[in-house]
Design goal:
The protein has helices at 3-22, 29-42, 60-89, 94-111, 114-138, 143-166, 175-186, 188-202, 224-227, 230-241, 276-300, 307-333. With 339 residues, it is an all-alpha fold. Residues 250-268 have a biased composition (Pro residues).
Length: 339
Amino acid sequence: MPAGAAANRDELERLVAALERSGLAESRDDIAALLAQSKALLGTPAPPSGRPRRRPRVSARGKLRALVLLLLDAVAAMATLYGAAGLGFETVEALEGGLAMAAGLGWALWRWGGLSALLAEALFRLRYALRWAGLWLAEPFSDRAYEALETLLDAREVMRGWRAHRRTLPPSHGLQDVEAWLRATYGPRIAVRFARAAEERRAGQPGWTLRGGQASGPPRPVPPSRMMRWSSLITLFEATAEGGALWATDPPPERPPAPAPALPPLAAPPVEAEAPEHLQRRLDLRELIRRKRQDITTAYGWKLKTEAEIAQRDNYLQELRTEIAVLEKELAALGGPPA
């Protein structure tokens, strides 16, 4: 049998075996038809010609790369042992031994993928802190900065609640657990927003890579382990809480407005400067609304055991929501943007 035909036959046999193990043919007609057609093409199995090849051939370049990595691993291990032994027995200088150990451990972290993840998280935390500081400084002068900072605060409160809930979960939790917690805490609308944001991020986005240079080609999907990092979750929570979505309610159905009677045009009234006490009251109302929203998020993280405690918590939350509604009406009457 020619080598190409034998390879094709081996691939077809592996495909049939995989389909039979998956059990998809029992629930999907197209998979069942594909399985039947593949078995018909196979027919009677051909006798093997010689010993079957059980693994792909490794190229010379791959072997050379493996040898170089093995050599670097050995050098890093010896450097680490040299530095540790020298410092322990005081046979080398502290600087020399420390540099040897740092080089060996740094290579080990880079080799097994831990260093790149630590660097990525550190860079994200630094950029996040700088962005927070910029919005905090610009908040008194810009409504847009105020809204962006509110989104960051809401996302941080969601992260606190999730981390408190995460301690009660098994180690193998994932995005589906985050979505279920959001559904139980904030409602299905927030869970849907989170799932949509997670799906967009999971698909991957092209951009600058950690090793330098612009990423080319189609974006690679983000692995599930990276999606559960703090940097990814806080970004998803920001996208979910954007625009005050955590506190918004579904609007009532709109009725068609009645036609207004035609009136003669009126001259625009002169614009008066806002009184300082109104401006200060608006700032105070915003701060009160923010604090009460934080109290609501904190209450969801309480560890309650009895029905009486849960009922008391629900009454407390209802009182807070009523107070927030009153404050928002007063803020709207003063002409401020919705909190």
